[in-house]
């Protein structure tokens, strides 16, 4: 029996032991899904607090119920450690580590490199390794493969199998989960694709094999670049409609009645989160090495990055209309998270809006039911105002930045002196209302 056949058999009988490197919002749900499928899973993370929590059967990820973790730990299906040496006793490894951008806009590959260096120390014949972290096309083959082959003199596609499978986790979503979201997977060689797909199909509802790791890496970037560019387009539509004196929200609602060939996106104060603003820049960065300028990505990024400044300019104009200089005006920013109904502030445009308002001399406060405190880009620590309606009444301008569902918008509209609504949170009540201006 070849190494490949033996490994596939171990995977299909769930005898293969699994390790997940990186136990964040991608790795922990994946560890649970493999555990629930019947594998013995060892979660490995340098953060001892995460490891301790899991050992105690506790979840720290919103989407993973503690009961599930406790059950798997109890059944001996889920273990956790900070020690990468645990890899020497497993056959299947999935890497789910962060891939942020540096301040310079270059990819920060340090997490992938350190995880791969650790993994390389313990590589042995009969292993399958899958990278899930979003990255530029070529990472699996150019960065990971040499390290994994050189350390123990193993040959990919013969002694071990290496693939890429993009994570598609959308924190807080309940309809599409790690288990039922279709999973693209592509290997360094055909046999790598086959072995990796054989592993993942034991635990996930739908696996979609592609011919190479690069195809899988690129599929992920297409998914998120598609979103970033369309958000950029609709933001530019908002700017053009304002110049034309046309209501962009009405235009989008009308276009969205088209039952085919159109997908609705909505304008806003900018692009937040750790995926959409960042992933496409991995692609444009990589293309520079091929002397190719990814113009759509650059332009959309420019438009999206400028939206906080555009919103602050509109607030200044609106206050001016009411005889109020922005300088010295009390501005209450409503909603600081990067998107509605979550507690994540990473790359949130609210931080840019607050900083720009303060730079113009406005007296800025914020409220967000999910974000009790925040630190602005300028390093200022702010607390969410304790009494929302009092703050609304006292503000010269309420700037709706993130339209959380929990807000009582009719009450806010009634109590406010003036509102700039960057999300159409007020809906029809905000249209042609003298107390409201909107994107
Ligand atoms: N945004 C707009 N207008 C839109 C949609 C989004 O301004 O029409 C803004 C949001 O306010 C936010 C940013 O863009 O600031 C990103 O929003 P998002 O809805 O794309 O949410 P994310 O960043 O959580 O994206 C994730 C991604 N999931 C993965 O990468 C696995 C993305 O691929 C999903 O499509 C998205 O969730 C989703 O659909 O919820």
CATH topology tier name of the largest domain:
Rossmann fold
Rg, rounded, reads 24 Å
- The largest beta-sheet arranges its strands as 3-2-1-4-5-6-7-8
Order of helices and strands: HEHEHHEEHEHEEHEHHHHEHEEEHEHEE
Write down how many β-strands occur, each being a DSSP E stretch of 2 or more residues.
15
The CATH architecture term of the largest domain is 3-Layer(aba) Sandwich
The coarse silhouette is elongated
Q: Class of the largest domain in CATH?
A: Alpha Beta
The overall number of domains is 2
The CATH homologous superfamily name of the largest domain equals NAD(P)-binding Rossmann-like Domain
Q: Count the DSSP helices.
A: 14
- Helix share of residues? 40-55%
Q: Which structural class matches the secondary elements?
A: alpha/beta
Question: How large a portion of the residues is in β-strands, by DSSP E?
Answer: 5-15%
- End-to-end separation in angstroms reads 65 Å
Q: What can be said about the biggest beta sheet? A: 8 strands, mixed
Give the low-confidence spans.
none
